[in-house]
């Protein structure tokens, strides 16, 4: 009987502890965003690059490149999605708004990789230059990311 009572007391203690454990403070997402992302616009150099390097020559039908801000996983700065025929939508994560000039350029290069057919999706499988993509490769070693980072950096530096 005594043993059972002890057990009961321990259980109650544990339950009360769980209940009174303070919740971690929730930081509102807007407090983490350092710039007013709502005023950001693609720069002239982005628009020039879209015109000169992304669009096919006349008389081919141009692509529509659109962008929006979208809360994404906090480790993802942007996503490029080929969502319809000749339509690409770029999602930009407001957490990275302080470097959207770069992020947008990086995503535009992914758009170019998709338009040229270097980066291709078939069902759930992706191909990079004809070879099946191995998603276990770390981000920094993926050839399409190396290409996007390198060209985005050098293009933006050349425009400063
Ligand atoms: Zn990327």
How many domains? The number is 1
Bound molecules: zinc ion
The biggest sheet amounts to: 3 strands, mixed
Structural class: alpha+beta
Query: pLDDT below 50 for ≥5 consecutive residues: which ranges?
Result: none
Share of residues in helices:
40-55%
Q: What is the 3D shape?
A: elongated
N- to C-terminal separation? 80 Å
Task: Give the rounded overall mean pLDDT.
Answer: 88
For the biggest β-sheet, the strand order reads 1-3-2
Structural Rg: 24 Å
Strand content: 15-25%
Please report the number of helical segments: 5
Give the tally of β-strands. 6
| Element-by-element helix/strand order | HHHEEEHEEEH
Textual characterization of the structure:
The chain is of the alpha+beta class and 160 residues long. It has one domain (43-158). Helix content is 42%, strand content 18%. It is built from five helices and six strands, in the order αααβββαβββα. The strands form two sheets. Strands 1-3-2 form a three-stranded mixed beta sheet. The model has no long low-confidence stretch (mean pLDDT 88). Bound molecules: zinc ion.
């Amino acid at each position: 009987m005594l043993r059972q009572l002890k057990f009961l007391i321990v259980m109650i203690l544990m339950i009360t502890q769980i209940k009174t454990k303070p919740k971690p403070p929730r930081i509102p997402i807007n407090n983490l965003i350092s710039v007013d992302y709502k005023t950001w616009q693609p720069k002239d150099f982005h628009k020039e690059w879209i015109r000169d390097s992304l669009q096919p020559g006349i008389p081919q039908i141009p692509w529509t490149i659109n962008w929006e801000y979208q809360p994404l996983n906090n480790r993802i700065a942007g996503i490029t999605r080929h969502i319809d025929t000749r339509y690409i939508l770029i999602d930009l994560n407001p957490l990275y708004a302080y470097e959207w000039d770069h992020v947008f350029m990086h995503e535009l290069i992914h758009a170019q990789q998709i338009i040229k057919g270097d980066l291709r999706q078939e069902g759930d499988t992706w191909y990079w230059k004809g070879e099946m993509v191995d998603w276990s490769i770390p981000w920094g070693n993926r050839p399409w990311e190396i290409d996007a980072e390198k060209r985005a950096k050098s293009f933006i530096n050349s425009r400063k």
